[in-house]
Amino acid sequence: MKVARHEKIIELIHQYEIDTQEELASKLNEAGFKVTQATVSRDIRALKMTKVAGKDGKSHYAILEEPSLGDKYTRVFHDALTSIDAGQNIVVVKTVPGMAMGVAAALDAMKWPEILGSIAGDDTLMCAARTPEQAQIVKEKLKSILKK
Questions:
Q1: 117 burial class (0-12, 13-18, 19+ CB within 10 angstroms)?
Q2: What is the pLDDT of residue 67?
Q3: Which site in 3, 9, 51, 141 is 20 to 30 Å from 70, CA atoms measured?
Q4: Residues 77, 52: one domain?
């Protein structure tokens, strides 16, 4: 629930210029997350959020440093991936049998801008990128995760 709430917070602060914890709590409650101001305060610290000046001079919350890849996703990749390759704008990821859907779900949750979408079978998934260069970026990002 906490991971989903954090993802929603990131989405909300990118969508709206939220300037108070109460406003963020209200938006989260509207989205179906039952939170208190104290929970929001802890989330703000966990996500390393800060206030920045907006275009109108009014301050609002922002994340200066995007949160690092969660252990949950890293573990999925370490446990499941067997090979990564790219051809043109497609990244082909091979996994142990039965894990392609889990890897695709992890990639979707990470919302990498290079990935337009993924299709998963039993032990293979294909990610479409806009360009061959972006496919190479996805391939290198995945390989760098495996080196950790």
A1: exposed
A2: 47
A3: 51
A4: no
